[in-house]
Amino acid sequence: MTVVDRPTPIEVLEADMASSLSSSDGAKVDLGFRGLAVGAGLMVLAILAAITVVTTRKAWPAFTTYGTDYWFSTNWQPNKQDFGILGFIWGTAVISFIGILLAVPTSIGIALFATEVAPRRLRRSITTVMDLLASVPSVVFGLVGFYVLKTPLQTFYRWLGDAVAGVPVLHTIFGQDSSGLALLTAGIVLAIMIMPIITSVTREVFDTVPRNDKEGALALGATRFEMITGVVMPHSLGGLTGAVMLGLGRAMGETIAVTLLIGASSKPPITVDVLSASDAMPAGIARYLPEASGMFQSALIGMGVTLFVLTMIINIGSRRIVGVMDRRLKGAS
User: Fold this and answer.
1) pTM for the predicted model, two decimal places
2) What phi-psi label fits residue 269: left (phi over 0), alpha (psi between -120 and 50 degrees) or beta?
3) If we measure between CA atoms, which residue out of 190, 173, 134 comes closest to residue 271?
4) First vs last Cα of the chain: how many Å apart?
5) I need a labelling partner for 321 at 20 to 30 A (CA). Which of 116, 139, 167, 233 fits?
6) CA-CA distance, 188 to 276, in Å (whole number)?
7) Is the pLDDT at 1 greater than 50, yes or no?
8) At what angle do helices 237-253 and 295-332 cross, to 10 degrees?
């Protein structure tokens, strides 16, 4: 009597998978999925190219008429057909810098607390709250800033201006005359807006750090702070930079909240006084575009093109910086 070896279930499964992969139907499905994925990727590039072409064509009359003065002049007088947007660029940069300066350390601290210190139940609560805050519309933050923060900040600004009146540098940064609607107010609200986004992404990045690496550092005698600075932060550098760039992108492109809180200066100045009224590119577009036409409309669309280009430059530059730092860290290790 002969004994017939029966195939094991694993061998049967492998045979079924091999037959399905080698069949013509499986090849067609795989080819179709590949084409769908490639098409989706190309569609993103096509949409990006279409936005660039359309907006640049609309803004081209302003670019060709005013040349470099369009970007490097502060002479913004629509009634005289003078369009220099340097003041708007400066206002956008200042409020974005203030927002990032206030939001990033706070967001990193919250993310570290949620991943390294807080009990499990509290971690869930922090995660839920941050996710809810990230979904709040920007107009809500703008209204809260306008109706709740404006008056207390106006009082605080006047006190701060009086307190630093005798200090040369600080007196220049914190002027005495302020209505509460200023660069700093817009920057504070932007920091509150982007904090949940940066915190959520940063927390997810910190969670990807291998547990063995952290426990190994602690086992070698490192303190919790040394473990965070020596293991968690280097491992999370790329993701952390991405989180900051995501927050910066929202800060630079925010419109409604900034429109309500920046003060709407008719001719934005180049000043380091963060308590003065100014304007930003997204806010200027939203404020003037409904009534603009001709060259005025072209100049406003040019602001959008400029903002788009600046955002792309910042993102490309940050990626290069992260790549260089990662290579140095890997080489040092």
Assistant:
1) 0.84
2) beta
3) 173
4) 65
5) 116
6) 14
7) no
8) 170
